[in-house]
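Quick one, probably user error.
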């Protein structure tokens, strides 16, 4: 497809996203489904620029306002040109916008003048930077923000290790390679984005797509032996699947989610993959009968998702500060409901994919003042060489190359 058409597609797509009412990935997915004529190279090009503009929105708009003085009919074209000049340096795009070339020096000068302000340099709302400052040391802040503006790796978890070589061979046919991850023993990065549905080994459950951080927080549960586990917010089931592989044949993982549609999708995901230690609870009435019986209850709580900004950069603009308190209220309600399913002496694993203190430490502190106490798993932190303050597990993209996760293991007294 010619460059003019590609630029038009980027602008058309951006105009559908920039009211920030819906997740960008859903808008993009719908857009591509309606335009089957777009080939893989076209889509890759469009995605590269659309996500680049979204990630750097604040910076680009600041420069656009100063260089072009006002909002113009070519607003999106101007954002793309500025983004390309500073970050991509794609010659085809530069040639297409040759009419703007006389502005290059002015644009670069404005960019340089803005780099002393990290909110503009990395394009984050000021309130969000203020929240990050509660957990990130000043010396690490720019590295942290830069990591959030980077693309997340494609990570899988090997479920059937005996077929690893078969998987390597199948991926090589797609010109893709595996690279062992640093922390989780079953985690591998895939060198390029491919359609896993086209690989038979995926349909047979040989591997699952799962961020290394998600794998690590699952391992942090310490699940093993013949224990009974409740995954109370199972969602798509990624952690449920992994938990079932960590326990013995006598153990069992019960999966429940208040969103029955997501639970139904999880049931479909299980088909033909050979998982035998998972029982799906399909109603609240069925769940209530199981109070006080679980050795481990896992609560992967609904949260702001700020830890996934690498994957979902539109969260910078969709999230509002008040969303944090709204989410923390829901998290407290969930904990009040599901702590009753932990047997005396049993464990509760609280997880979020959020960086914000109000969704994590404040929730954990409140819980630890009740009949739960934090479990300090010294062996885990030493094994993976991860720092902890009080026993909580915090994962960061700039330190661990994972999504942002917080997890805490607590014992019911």
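Nope, works fine. Designed sequence:
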């Amino acid at each position: 497809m010619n460059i003019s058409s590609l630029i038009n597609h980027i602008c058309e797509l951006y105009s559908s996203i920039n009211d920030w009412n819906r997740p960008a990935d859903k808008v993009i997915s719908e857009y591509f489904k309606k335009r089957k004529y777009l080939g893989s190279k076209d889509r890759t090009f469009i995605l590269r620029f659309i996500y680049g503009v979204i990630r750097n929105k604040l910076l680009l708009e600041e420069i656009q306002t100063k260089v072009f003085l006002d909002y113009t009919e070519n607003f999106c074209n101007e954002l793309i040109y500025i983004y390309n000049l500073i970050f991509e340096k794609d010659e085809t795009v530069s040639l297409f916008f040759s009419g703007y070339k006389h502005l290059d020096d002015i644009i670069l000068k404005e960019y340089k003048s803005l780099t002393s302000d990290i909110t503009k340099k990395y394009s984050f709302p000021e309130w969000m930077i203020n929240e990050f400052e509660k957990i990130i040391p000043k010396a690490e802040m720019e590295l942290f923000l830069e990591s959030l503006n980077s693309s997340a790796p494609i990570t899988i978890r090997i479920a059937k290790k005996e077929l690893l070589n078969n998987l390597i061979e199948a991926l090589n046919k797609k010109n893709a390679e595996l690279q062992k991850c640093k922390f989780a023993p079953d985690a591998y990065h895939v060198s390029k984005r491919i359609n896993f549905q086209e690989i038979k080994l995926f349909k047979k459950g040989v591997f699952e797509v799962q961020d290394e951080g998600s794998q690590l927080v699952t391992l942090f549960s310490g699940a093993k032996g013949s224990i009974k586990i409740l995954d109370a917010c199972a969602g798509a089931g990624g952690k449920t699947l992994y938990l079932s592989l960590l326990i013995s044949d006598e153990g069992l993982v019960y999966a429940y989610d208040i969103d029955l549609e997501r639970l139904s999708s999880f049931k479909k995901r299980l088909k033909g993959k050979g998982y035998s230690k998972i029982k799906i609870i399909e109603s609240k009435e069925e769940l209530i009968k199981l109070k006080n019986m679980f050795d481990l209850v896992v609560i992967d709580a609904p949260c702001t998702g700020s830890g996934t900004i690498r994957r979902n950069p539109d969260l910078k603009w969709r999230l509002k500060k008040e969303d944090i308190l709204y989410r923390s209220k829901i998290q407290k309600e969930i904990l009040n409901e599901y702590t009753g399913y932990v047997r005396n002496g049993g464990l509760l694993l609280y997880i979020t994919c959020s960086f914000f203190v109000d969704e994590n430490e404040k929730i954990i502190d409140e819980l630890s003042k009740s009949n739960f106490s934090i479990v300090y798993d010294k062996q885990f932190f030493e094994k993976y060489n991860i720092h902890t303050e009080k026993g909580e597990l915090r994962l960061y993209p700039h330190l661990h190359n994972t999504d942002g996760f917080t997890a805490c293991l607590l014992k019911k007294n």
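The mean pLDDT is 95.
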